[in-house]
From TrEMBL:
Pfam families: PqqD. GO terms for biological process: pyrroloquinoline quinone biosynthetic process. Transmembrane segments: none annotated. It comes from Spelaeicoccus albus. Monomer. Interacts with PqqE. Signal peptide: none annotated. One of its GO terms (molecular function) is quinone binding. InterPro entries: PQQD (IPR008792), PqqD_bac (IPR022479), PqqD_sf (IPR041881). Pathway: Cofactor biosynthesis; pyrroloquinoline quinone biosynthesis. It comes from the Bacteria. Keywords: PQQ biosynthesis. The keyword Phosphoprotein does not apply. This is Pyrroloquinoline quinone biosynthesis protein D.
Length: 96
């Protein structure tokens, strides 16, 4: 599998891998990423980003929405998070 370039990550539209589901776990009081035989607890900021990764928004659009929510988002942080999740197989990038 070829890794997407930084440009492709910025212009593409990230979505959760087909094998994953993001869900709120009421017992833990946190969001979890569920995969085959795995459960990963994610922090609030990561959950906010992952919820916006629906295959319809670009990374720039996700970042803009988060700025509206948090007022400040460090430059490049969303793109770095998305790139890391793509490398780890949690997110897929489709063409914009």
């Amino acid at each position: 599998m070829r890794m997407p370039t930084d440009q492709h990550i910025m212009t593409g539209r990230p979505s959760l891998g087909a094998h994953l589901r993001l869900q709120f776990d009421a017992v833990r009081g946190k969001y979890v990423l569920l995969g085959p035989e795995t459960v990963s607890v994610v922090n609030g900021t990561a959950a906010d980003i992952l919820r916006l990764c629906n295959g319809r928004r670009s990374v720039a659009e996700i970042e803009a929405e988060l700025i509206g929510q948090y007022r400040e988002v460090p430059a490049g942080e969303v793109a770095e998070f998305v790139a890391r999740q793509v490398r780890d197989g949690c997110l897929e990038i489709s063409d914009g």
